[in-house]
Write a structure and sequence with these properties.
The protein is α/β, with parallel strands linked by helices. Strand 3 and strand 4 form a beta hairpin. Helix content is about 30%, strand content about 25%. Helix 2 packs across helix 9.
């Protein structure tokens, strides 16, 4: 079959192990290019349970993102090669082709879209919480004028500052003091040590932490901003972008996607349709 005909022909994708539906591939060319990739190198930092972490009993990677990635690899008939990379280095790693994709709870944002294309797969948002021992902190406004820690590598510091400006000052209260931490685990350690009074992390991870460390934390309100989480892929790797989008679309259609999210108690953030670069 010559190239012009190939471009006009919709592949069945049986060879890629993908159940065909109208949204799986946008072009046969993308499918052909992806078939040449023996493995997909995926960046992950396993310190954000239940999205990604290492099972304490086996030290093996696990979590929602891990399960989604392995299922995508299965449907594309490609090996997923997990690469543990610092979160702040991931976007650059995609841009320089060190990895093919990011699957590590990364928020899809406009600045990141300048470097990578995001296949969005989950909805979440930042949420305040503190320890049960802080009897004087029971609402989000109670954190005004207090120190709140969060991972400095995320969008959370800016979102805390924005929430503070919109809520603390109008209420006649001092601004929240944002403390950048090395990660959410570091922020929780500082909270337990009394060095800060509150923490912000993704609303999707808080129930897991509260179950893991029972009778320790209490949430303050609900998520105070809306975010979409995406799989970051090099902007010029259209084959992988279309392949991942197609595999996710098929997973949503046959129920596999929701089954994986439900396994980790994360079904509330499920999407109904895969989008590209929906983040703001």
């Amino acid at each position: 079959m010559n190239k012009p005909v190939l471009k006009k022909t919709l592949l069945s994708l049986i060879a890629a192990g993908v159940v065909m539906n109208a949204a799986v591939w946008s072009s046969a060319t993308a499918a052909a290019e992806l078939s040449q990739k023996e493995e997909i190198k995926v960046a992950m930092m396993p310190n954000y349970p239940p999205l990604e972490f290492k099972d304490p009993a086996t030290n093996q990677l696990t979590g929602m993102d891990y399960d989604l990635g392995m299922e995508i690899g299965k449907r594309l008939n490609r090996k997923i090669s997990w690469q543990e990379i610092g979160f702040e280095q991931m976007v650059n790693a995609v841009a320089t082709k060190r990895v093919d994709m990011i699957l590590s709870g990364m928020t899809d944002t406009k600045p990141r879209q300048d470097i990578a294309t995001f296949v969005d797969y989950y909805n979440s948002g930042p949420q305040f919480y503190t320890t049960i021992a802080h009897k004087d902190i029971n609402t989000m406004l109670d954190l005004c004028g207090k120190k709140v820690g969060t991972s400095r590598r995320t969008t959370f510091p800016a979102e805390i500052a924005a929430w503070s400006a919109a809520n603390c000052e109008p209420a006649g209260k001092p601004a929240i003091v944002v403390v950048g931490a090395e990660g959410t685990a570091d922020a929780r350690t500082q909270l337990r040590q009394g060095r800060i009074e509150g923490v912000v992390q993704g609303s999707e991870t808080l129930p897991y932490i509260m179950e893991l460390e029972k009778d320790t934390y209490k949430p303050l309100g609900k998520a105070f901003a809306y975010q979409v989480t995406g799989m970051g892929i090099s902007k010029d790797d259209t084959a992988l972008i279309e392949g991942v989008k197609g595999a996710l679309t098929a997973m949503i259609a046959d129920g596999t996607y929701l089954k994986i999210l439900t396994k980790w108690g994360l079904q509330d953030g499920a999407i109904k349709e895969v989008s590209i670069n929906k983040g703001k």
